[in-house]
Recover the amino acids of this structure.
């Protein structure tokens, strides 16, 4: 398919809006050609996952856009950087890395993006409406905006998300198209006990299982409670995007495109089509106690350990509710190992300082904003045992921090941090 | 004279020429968290090729997974000279290939990235020297 550009797009490519916009358009066009898109689609919001310092190339790219007169053309939020700008000293990088990380974050702000520095922009007011075309980066944010909010993005990586923001265009392909959002596999969780489905600790495990079981396929869950919370869906999506390339899932009766299982299975289909042209029958799968146990076990690389060296929670960044729950668990107590909770500055400023933030600090918990413990040096050593309630931390922790991980619920994490010994409620997994 | 054997005709996502020993990744990988940008080694301890260096290889991967930062890692690998000589992908992954496109914009030497059916390399041994041409043809070097 040959890519067709309209007059405005050709003007951008020709430099009418400056060199940065032209460069951004060249990148968007290259992506569209790779993906076989026939045209571009206008977008109305972007989330840029390019603020994290991985090396000087990323700084050079962002500063090239600034120098070329670049400005974001749609409302744009920023993902985590490599520094906690509100709490200097939390990140233990050398002076040069710190300076380059700062330059990278500053460059994106100079392009006109909101300095949100969070992997969960949907928690700081960036919530596109169902059906809206957007271009988001960061795998958990992509899964959330598609699945939970029902807006439409493909999986945008570093650079392309920024180029989409500068041009207000994205390649029209994949999950931008309604029929590509149709579920092709039904995940029946009706056999999973309700008690387990009510627990937060279930969702990262279900997400890990999903990523392994369906990979890039689009699933619709049948049998999750209507009371499933946004935080639980956030955890599910983040884990599924870590263990597989899941960018969209539906939950019957819960998410916007899945009023019913049937609705998710027929998304974008032509109602006038004859039965023979209709939607293909979906595959049905059901997690078993055994396969969930395997997903649970996969989240822990440290086995047979009795002591932990640190705890980290808040990936994706903790919501105000999650901060309040953590505060309730530690109120009046004090943790005996380093304990980090990662969140957004925009969430922290909204929580009750006296009731939540100071309770956490008095308990010895370090609040990290703008960044998180698996993307930049925060943990006190280069190896040890880290406990977490996050499927994403569990997935990336070992390779990015050197720590082995033990996965448990938030309650398990707190109990373990108070005693310094691994405490895990195994009962919840028996069925 | 022994002639180079045509192994595959790929679709060039990023056109270019490159040559090196084949390294097959037998499990999908996320470049972010999976490849160390400084050394070019597979650093995910759970990956079957953990410890292998992808630098200067013709890297064949069934598909990429995970984080949207993988294009940034690709850019850093190119900038630091630790990139593969070419990448063969069983499934198009725009995130990874975009790192190479941006490298070209910034004036670094790009590498070819091809979409190639994984059957093309299924029977080849790691270390087999492959040459990728501008056209997208992949030859086994005699």
């Amino acid at each position: 398919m040959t890519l067709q550009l309209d007059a405005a797009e050709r003007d951008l490519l020709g430099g009418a809006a400056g060199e940065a916009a032209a460069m951004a358009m060249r990148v968007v066009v290259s992506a569209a050609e790779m993906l076989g898109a026939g045209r571009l689609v206008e977008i109305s919001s972007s989330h840029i996952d390019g603020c994290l310092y991985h090396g000087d190339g990323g700084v050079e790219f962002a500063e090239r856009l600034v120098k070329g007169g670049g400005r974001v053309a749609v409302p744009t939020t920023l993902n985590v950087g490599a520094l906690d700008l509100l709490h200097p000293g939390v990140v233990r990088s050398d002076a040069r890395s710190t300076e380059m990380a700062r330059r990278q974050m500053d460059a994106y702000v100079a392009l006109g993006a909101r300095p949100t520095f969070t992997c969960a922009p949907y928690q700081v007011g960036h919530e596109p409406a169902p059906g809206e075309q957007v271009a988001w980066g960061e795998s958990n944010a992509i899964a959330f905006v598609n699945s939970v909010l029902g807006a439409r993005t493909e999986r945008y990586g570093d650079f392309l998300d920024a180029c989409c923001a500068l041009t207000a265009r994205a390649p029209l392909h994949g999950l931008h198209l309604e029929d590509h959002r149709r579920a092709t596999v039904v995940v029946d969780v009706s056999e999973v006990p309700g008690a387990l489905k009510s627990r937060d600790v279930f969702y990262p495990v279900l997400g890990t299982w999903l990523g392994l079981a369906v990979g890039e396929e689009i699933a619709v869950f049948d049998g999750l409670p209507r009371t499933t919370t946004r935080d639980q869906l956030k955890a599910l999506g983040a884990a599924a995007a870590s263990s597989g390339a899941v960018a969209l899932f539906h939950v019957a009766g819960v998410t916007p495109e899945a009023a019913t299982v049937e609705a998710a299975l027929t998304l974008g289909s032509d109602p006038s089509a004859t039965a023979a042209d209709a939607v293909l029958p979906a595959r049905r799968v059901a997690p078993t106690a055994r396969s969930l146990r395997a997903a649970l076990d996969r989240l822990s690389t440290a086995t047979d350990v009795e002591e932990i060296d640190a705890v980290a929670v808040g990936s994706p960044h903790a919501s105000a509710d999650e901060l309040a729950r953590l505060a309730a668990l530690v109120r009046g107590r004090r943790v005996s190992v380093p304990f980090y909770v990662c969140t957004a500055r925009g969430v922290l400023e909204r929580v009750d300082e006296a009731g939540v933030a100071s309770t956490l600090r008095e308990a010895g918990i370090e609040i990290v904003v703008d960044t998180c413990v698996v993307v930049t040096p925060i943990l006190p050593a280069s190896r040890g045992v880290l406990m977490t309630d996050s499927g994403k931390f569990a997935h990336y922790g070992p390779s990015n921090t050197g720590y082995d991980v033990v996965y448990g619920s938030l309650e398990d994490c707190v109990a373990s941090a108070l005693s310094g010994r691994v405490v895990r409620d195994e009962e919840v997994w028996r069925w | 004279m022994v002639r180079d054997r045509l192994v595959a005709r790929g679709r060039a996502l990023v056109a270019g020429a490159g040559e090196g020993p084949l390294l097959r990744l037998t499990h999908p990988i996320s470049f972010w968290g999976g490849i160390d940008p400084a050394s070019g080694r597979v650093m995910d301890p759970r990956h079957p090729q953990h410890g292998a260096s992808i630098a200067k290889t013709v890297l064949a991967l069934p598909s990429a997974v995970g984080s949207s930062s993988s294009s940034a890692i690709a850019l850093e690998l190119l900038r630091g000279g630790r990139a593969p000589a070419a990448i063969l992908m069983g499934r198009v992954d725009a995130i990874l290939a975009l790192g190479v496109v941006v490298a070209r914009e910034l004036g670094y030497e790009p590498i070819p990235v091809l979409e190639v059916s994984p059957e093309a390399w299924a029977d080849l041994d790691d270390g087999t020297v492959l040459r990728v041409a501008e056209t997208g043809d992949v030859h086994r070097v005699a």
